[in-house]
Amino acid sequence: MVATTGLEYLGQSVQILDWLVQTSGLIGGLSGAQAALLSATLPMTETVRTALPEWLQSPQAIGMLMAAVAAVMYAGFAMLSYRQRRRQRLLEDMVKQRTQELEEKSQQLAEALAAAKRASRTDRLTGLANRRAVEEGLPADVLIVDRRFAERPYPADSDFTMFVLDIDHFKAVNDQYGHAVGDRILEQFSTILKDVFRASDIIARWGGEEFLVVSRFTDRANAAEIAERLRHCIETHDFVIADGETTRCTASIGYASYPFDPDFAHPLTWECTIGIADCALYAAKKTSRNAWVGLSAGSPGTPLTKADIIRDTSALIARGALRAETSIADDKDLIW
Asked: What was the pLDDT predicted at 57?
């Protein structure tokens, strides 16, 4: 009875092992000795049920055989588990490597986009900001200024003074020396601007030989002093045009501060303020050159538009609604 029960257990065990081998391809994953043992054992499935040698029918022998079968099964499953873990590690390494590559590509793309954005906002010749950089960046600063001027009394050093300047007779320089020399002068001109103004100010090539400087968070009362310092630095600078050869240049400067009238509830926009500074620039250029002219609000609370200022400049100055400052001698009337 014991032997019969042992044989039944052995038969069941071998049948289970046979099924596992058939369904999982275990023999292919085992060593040669393990495969040989299973191959020799499996054909016994049918004969085990009829007869075995008496010495193999003892409980001890059957137990040893079952233990051997279990050991083979364990070794097979261990091998499969090892292969699965190894495959998992390989997949994880591949994913990690691919993720790192994607992160590097993403970083390179971000740097390329940042470089393209900087290039689109930078003048290629002088390295200064261009008109686009001013138009995109200045509105955020203007909001800060507007909030400051909403307070009463408004804080000191809250003005934005717009300086627009143009190199005098620059066409003649290009005609006489060529455009390569003209470009060299523009580069040196940008260096002077960087020396005169602060790093926190916005310095831009506005177009051609015209430049814009936004002196940020300053006092408009100092604008005339800054304009004179700039005019003098340009006038006394030796512009290098060739090896050992230099020339002198001058510039005309116009300025106005934002908000144009701090006491008026609806100030002119920053774009209008630059337009007023440009109007002052052309007065300096028409009247004298190598000079500066500044415009500011006169009588408090007088509503002015950019069109009024440009069209009726002289009349507005005469009645005190507009005030002009200039380096041009008093005995010479400004030409607007």
From this structure: 60
